[in-house]
Amino acid sequence: MKKALLLLFVFIFCNQIIVAQKETTVLSIKNTANAPTINKNIYGHFAEHLGRSIYGGFFVGDTSKIPNTAGVRNDVVAALKDLKIPNLRWPGGCFADTYHWKDGIGPKEERPTIVNQWWGGVTEDNSFGTHDFLNLCELLGTEPYLAGNMGSGTVQELADWVQYVNFNGKSPMSDLRIKNGRTAPWKVKIWGVGNEAWGCGGNMTADYYAGEYRKYATFMSDWSNTGGLMRVASGANSADYNWTETLMKNIPGNMLGGVALHHYSVIDWDKKGDGVDFTEDIYFRTMTQALKMEELVTKHSAIMDKYDPKKKIALVVDEWGGWYEVEKGSNPGFLYQQNTMRDAVLAGSTLNIFNNHADRVRMANLAQCVNVLQAVILTDKTKMLLTPTYHVMKMYSVHQDATLIPLTFESPLYTLNDKNLPAINISASKDAKGLTHVSLVNIDSKKENKIEIDIKELGIKNVTGTIITSTKLQDHNTFDNPTKIQPVIFKGFEIKKGKLEITIPPFSVVTLEGK
Ligand code: AHR
C-alpha cells in the first residue's frame, strides 16, 4: 500500500514537472551563419498631407508662437531625432498621386492653392513643399523617401522632380532649384513610383501598372549623384499575391529597387471600432489582423524569391499599422485616432515579424508619423505627447542595422472564444558593439508567460531590460497625462545555471540587452 502511494506521488509529481515545463517557452537559436542584417530602414515613418500630419503636426510656419525652425516644430524634431528615424516617406499616400511638386516651390505667397481631394476636401496652400520637406529630413538626419505622382502626373513631371532635387550640373531644373535658394542638390535616393496604383493611385490593373512603371522608371535618371536610385513599385494590397507576381514577372529586376506592400490592421472597413473604447474581442480581432503580416511577408517573399533568388529587390512595407474610427468629434477625413497599449503590442509584434524577415523586408513605414492613424506623436496646439507606439519604436531602435539572431520556439496560445493566436512573438539581434538585444511581446490580455533562453549559447553574462506595460489594454497617454505609459526598467527575469528565465506580463513589450 505504501509503495502504491509512493508511486502515485511520484507520478503526480513528474506530471506536474511536465506541465510546468510546458508552461515555459524555450527558445533555441537557429543557425546564425548567413543571418541577415536588420536594415535600419524597417524603422521608417510616413508623413502625408493628411489632416494634421503636416500642418499643425510637423509644420506651424515660421511666424508661429510654437518654437520652430523654418516653420517646423522643434519639439517634434527633437522627439523624432531621439527615435533615430531612418527614413521619412512624403507627400503621400493617396495625396501623392494628386500632388504636383512645382506647386510647392518658390515664394510661398505665389504658390497655388489646391483642394486636398482625398483627405477632408480642405484647402492646401502648398506652404510646405519640396524644400521644406528635404530641409526637415536634413534637420532630422533621416533619409527622404519621395512618393512620385503617377496617377495624375506625367513622366516628364516626375523626371523633372528627380532632376530638381538631385542634379549637380547646369540644367533647367537645377537652375530653378538654385533660384529657389538651394545650391547643392539633396541626393534623394529612395523614390516611390505611384502609390496604391490598384486604388486611389489610378485604379490600374497589375499588368497596366507594370507597363507604366517601366516607362516612368526609365526616365528617372540618377544624375550620377546617389550611387543609384532605389525605385519602389507601388505594391499589393494585403494578400493580393497576383499583384506582386505580375510586377516581378513583368518588370526587369534592374529597374526595381523595391516592391511595396500595404497592410493595415483593421477589423472591418465599415466598422473599424473606437481607438480607445474597445472590448477584448475587438483587441483579439485587431491582433489577428496584425499577426497576418507574418503570412503576408512570407508569401509575398516566396513569390519574389522565384524571380529574384538572390534577394536583390526589397519588400517595402511602406504602410502598416492599426486603423480605427476617427476620434469622436474630429474631422472624419483627418484620420486622427488615439494610441493605446493595443497599439504598443501591435507595433512590437509587427516589428518582430519584420526583423525576422530581414532578408527580404528591408524597408517599412509606419502609417503615420504625427496625428494620423497609428502615430508616434500627437499634438494639440502647443502641446505634444509621445504615444505607446513611439516608446516601442524607441525600444526596438537597438535592432537597426544589427545582425539578426534567428530563433525557434513553440508559442503558447492566447485563446478567446475558441479562437487561438500565438501569445508570444520574439526577435533578437547582435549589434556592431557586440550587444545582444531580444524583443519579446506577450499579446495575451490576461496571462503572463514564461520564456527561457540559453544565454551561454549567446555569450551573455549580464542582462538589463525595459518594458512597456500598463493595467488596462485601453490605457493611453493624454495631453493632461502624457507620461501615463512610458518604458520602465524590467526586472522580471532570473539567470539560473546559464539560462535566462523571463516572465512577461500580459499585453506587454519587453526589450532585453545582454552583454
Ligand atoms: O495612410 C492613409 C492612406 O491609406 C494612404 O494615403 C493610402 O495610401 C492608404 O490607403
Class by alpha and beta content: alpha/beta
Strand order within the widest beta sheet: 2-5-8-9-10-11-12-13
CATH class: Alpha Beta
Low-pLDDT segments: 4-22
Oligomer: single chain
What does the overall shape look like? globular
Describe this structure in words.
With 515 residues, the protein is α/β, with parallel strands linked by helices. The chain has one domain: TIM Barrel (Alpha-Beta Barrel). It has ten helices and 27 strands. The protein has helices at residues 2-22, 74-83, 130-140, 155-166, 172-179, 206-218, 241-250, 280-307, 341-356, 388-396; strands at residues 24-29, 44-46, 68-69, 72-73, 87-90, 114-116, 122-124, 143-148, 190-193, 230-237, 258-265, 314-322, 361-366, 377-380, 383-386, 403-404, 407-408, 413-416, 419-422, 424-430, 436-442, 449-454, 463-468, 488-489, 493-496, 499-504, 508-514. The protein has an eight-stranded parallel β-barrel, surrounded by five helices. Helix 4 (155-166) packs across helix 5 and helix 6 (206-218) packs across helix 7. The longest helix has 28 residues, at 280-307. The termini are far apart. Residues 48, 92-94, 195-196, 319, 367-368, 373 line the site of alpha-L-arabinofuranose. Alpha-L-arabinofuranose binds at residues 48, 92-94, 195-196, 319, 367-368, 373.
Sequence-ordered SSE layout with sheet pairings:
Elements lengths: L1 H21 L1 E6 L14 E3 L21 E2 L2 E2 H10 L3 E4 L23 E3 L5 E3 L5 H11 L2 E6 L6 H12 L5 H8 L10 E4 L12 H13 L11 E8 L3 H10 L7 E8 L14 H28 L6 E9 L18 H16 L4 E6 L10 E4 L2 E4 L1 H9 L6 E2 L2 E2 L4 E4 L2 E4 L1 E7 L5 E7 L6 E6 L8 E6 L19 E2 L3 E4 L2 E6 L3 E7 L1
Parallel strand pairs: 1-22, 2-5, 2-13, 5-8, 8-9, 9-10, 10-11, 11-12, 12-13
Antiparallel strand pairs: 1-17, 3-4, 6-7, 14-15, 16-20, 18-19, 20-21, 21-27, 22-26, 23-24, 23-27, 25-26
Helix pairs in contact: 4-5, 6-7, 7-8, 8-9, 9-10
This protein binds alpha-L-arabinofuranose.
